[in-house]
Amino acid sequence: MRKRYSRSGQWVLDGVDLTLEPGMTTVIVAGNGIGKSTLLRIVAGASMPTGGRVTDRPRTIGYVPERAPAAIRMTARQYLAHIGRMRGLSSAETGARTNELAERLRLVPGPDVPIAALSKGNGQKVAVIQALLKRPELLVVDEPATGLDAPARAELAALMTEAEQDGAQILLSAHESAVPTGRLYRLTDGKLVPESLRGMRISLRPARPGLRAADLAAEILLEEPGRVVVRTEDADTFLLRALADGWSLVEAVS
Ligand SMILES: Nc1ncnc2c1ncn2[C@@H]1O[C@H](COP(=O)(O)OP(=O)(O)OP(=O)(O)O)[C@@H](O)[C@H]1O
User: Fold this and answer.
1) Domains in the chain, ordered, with CATH?
2) What per-residue confidence (pLDDT) applies to 108?
3) Is the ipTM of this complex over 0.95?
4) Which of the listed residues 8, 37, 179 should we mutate to test ligand 1's pocket, taking the one with most ligand atoms within 8 A of CB?
């Protein structure tokens, strides 16, 4: 899948290939402005990719965006009643689940005040409640740590574990400072690199055109055009062998 926001703009996502599994949490880690929200919006169906597509997306999707819409004049309960109707829940089911989740997340002062009058963190709790109102088969949470106090973060973690145990596919984004547990991928240069592949990225010029770095050494974790990723502890051995074979070093970044 690829995504850019204008015809001549940079690719924010440039060849992302990701499979989510039921009952498993997948975490995308990257710094600010790299494209985490872009990827999560596309997976949740809130935005279209420029190229490629999302296949077999489950029917019931819970999506918690990074910033909850704040300017809603309805009360949280009215808004959640509306979401419950759209998801095919009865008013009794919606009411019971609203009360349960509002209590667990400690929504203050409660679901009966206008969303616009809630604090930022409590507005975020309403965004979490709407995503979990009907048990999601796909749960997408953009930076679960943002804006919530410690007890609410812990409760959200518990709710996500419950969703995982119910067999949901879960996709989260995070910064390095607060990485939840799960299968980790780093988003870098528009691509996903499994976290187990973290190490030294080494750009090389081959000794002769057409040579592949993978033929040089067994230590390579990932080969991309013009560069490889090797474990940091293997970097010296790999580089010495490459230089001895006549390759040139262009750049090495850990
Ligand atoms: N609607 C949009 N129109 C144009 N550019 C956009 C739009 N949304 C995001 N971008 C750009 O795409 C890039 C990735 O943004 P995105 O919000 O996906 O990053 P992020 O990794 O979630 O960042 P953060 O951690 O700061 O939330 C940024 O350069 C951003 O400016």
Assistant:
1) 2-188 (3.40.50.300), 199-253 (no CATH)
2) 96
3) yes
4) 37
